[in-house]
Amino acid sequence: MALDELDELYREAILSHVRDPRNHCVVPDAQVTGESVNPFCGDEISLQLRLDESGRVARIGLQGKGCSINRAAGSIMSEAIRGRSLDEIEELSDLFRGMMRSTEAAPDEWARLGELEVLSGVTRFPVRIKCALLPWSALDDGIDEYRRGRDREALPGEPSPPS
Ligand code: ZN
């Protein structure tokens, strides 16, 4: 797929993220880290999240390599998740995945996704859907791993259930 097959409005927005990727930095002391690779087109994503005391995303760093759709999707995602809790992010991730895999999503459904809407044109190019979802895979994996780590830490202190 060439970017010029996308609607002009979306193409411009996507190109702005490719030219100027948001949050393109490495965040030190991150609690959540994730990586994902798509060998099909050489896409790679690494990301780091720092959470504030209430568990919301305070800082995000994201490094993307590969095709334009992957890099733009990562940049857009990094803006979309700032200030959100991990539960909210998982909800958004499920919603976005569902929309990317649906061929009949109405425009007003896309509008609920905010700036992620600019990726709606990618649904017409099935081979590229994976590129747009790769950053979200890295994010979902990172959150899962973070939660597993928290569960392990919580175990020893947990009061044993009454027998
Ligand atoms: Zn790609």
- State the major sheet: 3 strands, antiparallel
What spatial order of strands do you see in the largest sheet?
A: 1-2-3
Over the alpha carbons, how many angstroms does the gyration radius reach? 17 Å
Shape: globular
* CATH class assignment: Alpha Beta
Number of domains: 1
- Total strands: the figure is 3
Q: What is the helix tally? A: 5
The helix/strand order is: HEEEHHHH
Low-confidence stretches: none
Helix content percent band: 40-55%
Distance between the termini: 61 Å
Kindly describe this structure.
It is built from 5 helices and 3 strands; from the N terminus they run H-E-E-E-H-H-H-H. With 163 residues, the chain is α+β, with helices and mostly antiparallel strands. The protein has one domain: Sufe protein. Chain: A, CATH 3.90.1010.10. Strands 1-2-3 form a 3-stranded antiparallel sheet. A hairpin with a 5-residue loop joins strand 2 and strand 3. The radius of gyration is 17 Å and the shape is globular. The model has no long low-confidence stretch (mean pLDDT 91). The site of zinc ion (ZN) has 8 residues, from helix 2. Zinc ion binds next to helix 2.
